Task: structure prediction
Amino acid sequence: MTGTERGPRERMVFSAAQLIRRDGVGATGMRDVAAHAGAPRGSLQHYFPGGKEQLVNEAVAWAGRYAGKRIARFMAGMSEPTPSGLFAAMVRQWTDEYETAGFLSGCPVAAATVDCVSSAPSTREAAAAAFATWRKPLAEALTGMGVPAERAGSLATLMISSLEGAIIMARAEGDVRPLTTVARELGPLLDAARES
Amino acid sequence: MTGTERGPRERMVFSAAQLIRRDGVGATGMRDVAAHAGAPRGSLQHYFPGGKEQLVNEAVAWAGRYAGKRIARFMAGMSEPTPSGLFAAMVRQWTDEYETAGFLSGCPVAAATVDCVSSAPSTREAAAAAFATWRKPLAEALTGMGVPAERAGSLATLMISSLEGAIIMARAEGDVRPLTTVARELGPLLDAARES
DNA sequence: ACCGCGTTATGACAGCCGTCATAGTAGCGG
DNA sequence: CCGCTACTATGACGGCTGTCATAACGCGGT
Result:
């Protein structure tokens, strides 16, 4: 979650994602986003003429790109990459945050999905696209580690689903145990999918 | 989701759960709940002096009890119960709803978690309790099918996490595929956990 | 008849929301 | 200096929110 100093527009998108993943879409106000980004309120309607919906959609898209890029970073950080190791790294990112910063925030894509799917079609599409840009590099990483192509997509879906659900349970319980449990139980299954 | 005709209080809790799982907590108003339940608006402050927070918490608790009871029903509906069959039944409940009624609604416990964890401590506790009353009978069902006790709890967490995550992905994509994928990929792992 | 109590009815309140309208500033090419 | 464009500033608007105050209703008990 590097907050590199870009233009005010990008900062607002980033701040929106931060606030959405903590408070949900409904409880995140436009004024809050501008304040959190240190940006003038008047810039909101200038950069996002589509209103809150556009801002939320861009925040969701940003989160999807971020998650996708992390996959490559996790792969690069492992000397001998394995599917279970990759999933453990994905999970560890969340346990690290929760142990250092508390269980304040979840996944912005999940938050937007829960809050907007049945009211804002464009946000639903943005969420679907975000999951796609997350799953694609994940599935490619799996195939690169020897997982058959027709299986990689399914396992990527399983990994993301389990992670998202474990994030929710961990926040509810105020404990990282669901996250570590999911990583431990799923590890062998993922590694066994490789054809060696 | 049987709407048995009980008293107005129970109807309001039920309606709250329905609206929350569709629109999220923030977008669900008290007036909406009363209208949806066909209950007088004045009854809200009478039955729920704790305000919206109490209503949300009771809706979450109701959902937890409902999910827990469903486990026994799924078990009773299978001639030869297996862990994979139980999970498939849990998933099928959602695919059936989505294919007949559309992807309008998700899990109310997940919605409350996403929307309230970082703002309402009591709702966080209610969500944790709901997950507990869901996981407990699930773990017991697993042990009853031959899964070692120390493993059953972990697998129950894995099953709920995967299901919750798959629900979110399915709603985002407008497709039941994440749900069916998770059931298919997780089935063998669950059955293999039995000591026969 | 009257009381008491659980329930309902209704209107008002302050507060926040997203959005819009309008005006203002800065910078730059001409 | 002008004019243009990009961006900022500010206040107002209607609408909705959760909550409260107040009063009325229905009805069994005595």
Remarks:
- Chain A has a mean pLDDT of 95.
- Chain A touches chain B through 50 residues (CB under 8 Å).
